[in-house]
Amino acid sequence: MQALYAQLLVGLINGSFYALLSLGLAVIFGMLNIINFAHGAVYMMGAFCAYFLLNVMGIGYWPALIIAPIAVGIFGMILERTMLQWLAGLDHLYGLLLTFGMALIIQGIFQNYFGSSGLPYAIPDELRGGMNLGFMFLPIYRGWVVVFSLIVCIATWYLIEKTRLGANLRAATENPTLVRAFGINVPRMITLTYGLGVGLAALAGVLSAPINQVRPLMGADLIIVVFAVVVIGGMGSIMGSIITGFALGVIEGLTKYFYPEASNTVVFVLMVLVLLVKPTGLTGRATT
Amino acid sequence: MSVLTDDTLPAGPRSIRDEMIVFAAMAALLAAVPLTGIYPFFVMQALCFALLACAFNLLIGYGGLLSFGHAMFLGSAGYFTAHALKVWGVSPELGILIGTVGAAGIGVITGVVAIRRQGIYFSMITLALSQLLYFIYLQTPFTHGEDGIQGIPQGYLFGIFNLAKPTVLYYVILVGFLGGFLLIFRTINSPFGEVLKAIRENEPRAISLGYKTDQYKLLAYILSGTLAGFAGSLKVFVAQNASLTDVHWTMSGEIVLMTLVGGLGTVFGPVVGAFVIIAMQQYLAGFGQWVTVIQGVIFVVCVLTFRRGVVGEIAHYFRRSL
Description:
The structure holds 2 protein chains of 2 kinds.
Chain A: H1 2-32, H2 39-55, H3 61-82, H4 92-114, E1 130-132, E2 137-139, H5 140-162, H6 164-174, H7 176-181, H8 186-208, H9 220-233, H10 238-258, H11 266-277
Antiparallel strand pairs in A: 1-2
Chain B: H1 16-31, H2 33-36, H3 40-63, H4 71-88, H5 92-114, H6 119-139, E1 149-150, E2 156-157, E3 161-162, H7 166-188, H8 191-201, H9 203-208, H10 213-239, E4 241-242, H11 249-262, H12 269-283, H13 290-305, H14 309-317
Helix pairs in contact in B: 3-7, 3-10, 3-11, 3-12, 4-5, 4-10, 5-10, 7-10, 8-10, 11-12, 11-13, 11-14
């Protein structure tokens, strides 16, 4: 039973990353109509940012949790201003190709300087050790990742669904021209949205740095799984992405316990099943 | 809906005569390669990728479907052919048939799933499906995991042609490439191809005209996958191995890149693009990971400033379709 709970916890942690990443993808897609292929690369940049902050500047985990997402978010906004914005009006697929190219560039550069092996990042002192919950031993850091991700996800959901800023954002998704006529600076909102999505990915990167090592390709394979998560959940709803992300992480964890051989493939197999039964995804609307 | 905006589409009506002249010139040039002393291995490899990119282009350029998982056909057919040749000891023609039919089978299975969504979702689904196959090949014993299948015997095609001789192999690969190319050329000029283009331009209108668009898209997908598999089977004889590299998503990305550089939706673009990218990889092989960075830069530059691709630009300049 211990092993089952341990795998469930690993599943929840992976689920947190799936949720944070697919949430960012959904937010970006809603506003820019682009599937951000560079999402895995910026996730990796978040982890590297935390690593540099610690090893070069001596800045620890807690400030990194704030600085890294902001720094990478600004990097993302520069990308949006200099490149992505020129794709407005073109087919969605060009956005996919452009961000794929960006991902190759970013990952290639990091691979060049850091190879493919992992760099260690220590768990902060406050979160070391574990708790005995009676039925299992819970490493505090892992518990923290799950709880904190959940809080960030819900805060993002609240920001988009319940605040005035979010209302503007959703309105601009529906009809940007009309929203501009109300005097709202839609291009700036698009840039900020991209920064927000990228920042969420970077935050996931910082969270994962002490668990998975910091590697140039840490996001490359992850992003494909997240794409499958997005296909399963549909990008129509923020809450949908969060729930699907966590649920698929847990299912993956359970598979690792009951049938480890399929743990790599279970999300893809589920995607196939969902497509056969409900092609629009679990929360998706009937649009393309 | 349409993938290619107006300025990337060929200007003016297509002329089959122009295209046949270019085709004849291309065939003559390629047939003369062994006389020039150019390293044949490089051209053979480029020809396999050229056919692969043409097959991919059939789907994106004429069907409007961007597959980000075409490596699955290349790699799967490679594994099937390699396994049949090495373990079962079949003749080369049967090996190619097994690989191609296998790829067609994978096309049927994945196609039924993938065509349920369009646009961006189609790309993500094909990518995920090819990653699924990648993990399967990583774990099943017949692919020999990270090592791949190596030292594949080349044998005698139809019992006559000794494929171990580079010149013989070159002409066999060339015939295979030209045959596949003509099949694609015939397809895009057929009524079937016209319907595909109609679906690319405006799917709801095609549906309202009574076309069962899903069936057309599925058929195009299977045809594209089968031809990509055929290219993968031919490649086994050139490289004499089959490995996980050919199933990996980076390979799918390279296929997209070749077609993008040459010109999406042009007849000859994928061939040019394949030669450009393979030559680049050859010359930059010493630069290690920088090749990835350079490929990324080419992607970005192409998408931002050069969406017509090499052949698309030429065609646009002469106001012809190529």
